[in-house]
Amino acid sequence: MNAFFHAEDFEITGEVRWFDGTADSGNEVSRGFCPICGTQLFAKSSARPQFIVARVGSLDDPNLIAPSVSIWTSQAPEWALIHPELPRIERQPPPIA
Description:
The chain is mainly β. The chain is about 0% helix and about 35% strand.
């Protein structure tokens, strides 16, 4: 599960190793990983430079946030539990202006 934060309001403490690439959308994406275990923690996209994406499990207190939408539902496996009351978007949502 991912959470979007305004980049200017988000602070990363500790070392992160960043790797750049191109997403399926064609946007440039930078992914941040733990340099010790390799777990992906963060992501940044050229389509939404004002945001940073954090893996909810990497947050000090993941209970401070709750999901507001389910994205990429067309790619979800059959066993995925998608909350029935949340809006669903089949693929990547359009960039926020």
